[in-house]
Amino acid sequence: MATAEHSPLEQFEIHPILPITVGDLNLSFTNSSLWMAIAVLLIYALVMLGTRHGSMVPGRLQALVELSYQFIAEMLGSTVGKEGRQYFPFVFTLFMFILFGNFLGMIPGSFTYTSHIIVTFSLAIFVVTAVTVIGLIRHGFHFFSFFAPSGCPIYVMPLLVPIEILSYMIRPISLSVRLFVNMMAGHIMLKTFAGFIVALGSFYVVPGVAPLALTIGLTGLELAIAFLQAYVFTVLTCIYLQDAIHLH
Amino acid sequence: MADDQEAPKFADFDARLRRMRKDAGLGRSGAEPGSGRPSVGGAGVQVGIELVAGVLGGGLIGYALDSWLETWPICFLVMFFLGAAAGMLNAYRHIRRWSEMPEERPQDR
User: Fold this and answer.
1) Which of A6, A28, A135, A201 has the most other CB atoms within 10 Å of its CB?
2) What count of other Cβ atoms lies within 10 Å of the Cβ of residue B57?
3) Which of A51, A174, A177 to mutate to test the interface with B (most CBs of B within 10 A)?
4) Across the interface, which of B2, B38, B50 has its CB nearest the CB of A174?
5) Average pLDDT estimate for A74-96
């Protein structure tokens, strides 16, 4: 049944909406860019509208904004501590961008930009670079003691230090692969089971009910994963920040 | 009018909020979904990704070094195994962090 235009992978295709080429660079405004722009606009609108009145007893929108503020503030407070306060805008922006990307992707017909490795990898490499720079600014050269665990015998150092450095360099890969794999796998699974509804339903309608029920269940599961993965990405960012600030 | 009121003191507000939470029998507001530790299965997937990323990252870095220094396959082999070790180290840290997380959701298995 999987013809070219009904492939479960079709949802990940990138189409240019506004083709722009500068020299050899393809800078087209694609469906991916469109959904990123929508996400940013929605986040902006949510926070702006939610904080418009600033009443003591919050309305629905204000409660939502306050809830997300408190959620990130507490996450930063519990993992990084007081020093983490100044990085709140960064972490909050990151969380909202990923969360909205994941949730907007659940709208049928939309595009999930977090299901593309290049998007998540850009985010992850930015996080790790930023964290490294923060660590270098705070500790200067002392930051490199991070790669030499204290209290380990000197003769294992030649082996341990490269492993520590490599494990640090792998962070952006594991961070980005985690988000991208979870989103992509979930969406492929949803599409595949949704395809079964038509395939089985065209038999005698009734068999189609089973995959339909499964798809409904999976949609719920995917919504949970959408939140959880945004949370995991942000928590790991906080943990990396904590590492850079406190050096173990 | 909200504008006429003086801005409420945050310390005072925090204290009041904490008192009210305690009175209402709520714990620290860790009740948001997902703020408990992930389930064992979920953590397993995360650890698996950590292991794969180690090998993948090590291999890629080694391959890049080789094509730069033209020493194929020395760097690749060394970095592949170092990457695998680094992945295990990351996985170990991941598990340790996970087991230190408070078990907030009672139904977690």
Assistant:
1) A135
2) 26
3) A174
4) B50
5) 91
Which pLDDT does position B34 carry in this prediction? 45
**What pLDDT score was predicted for residue A5?**
57
What is the model's pLDDT at position A83? 86
On the CB side of B39, CA atoms within 13 Å amount to 9
Q: DSSP 3-state assignment of A29? A: strand
Contact between B82 and A169 using a beta-carbon 8 Å cutoff: no
Beta-sheet strands, E only, within chain A = 16-18, 21-22, 25-26, 29-30
Contact across the interface for B57 and A228, Cβ inside 8 Å: no
CB B9 within 8 A of CB B16: no
Burial A190-211 (b: 16+ CB within 10 A, else e): bbebbbbbeebbeeeeeebeeb
Question: Quick one: pLDDT at residue B4?
Answer: 46
pLDDT digits (tens, 9 = 90+) for A1-45: 445 457 888 888 888 898 888 888 888 899 999 999 999 999 999
CA distances (Å), origin B12, targets A171, B18, B19, B26: 41, 10, 11, 19
Report the C-alpha gap between B83 and B38 in whole angstroms.
26
Structural domain tally of chain A?
Answer: 1
Please report the residues numbered 52 through 81 in chain A whose beta carbons come closer than 8 angstroms to any beta carbon of chain B. Answer: 53-56, 67, 70-71, 74-75
CA nearest A168: which of A190, A189, A187, A144?
A144
Interface mutation target, options A102, A170, A238, A248, chain B, most CBs of B under 10 Å: A170
| Cβ pair A162:B82 closer than 8 A | yes
A227 contacts on B by Cβ (under 8 Å): 33-34
Q: Domain coordinates of chain B in residue numbers?
A: 40-101
Q: What are phi and psi of A30, to 5 degrees?
A: -100, 180
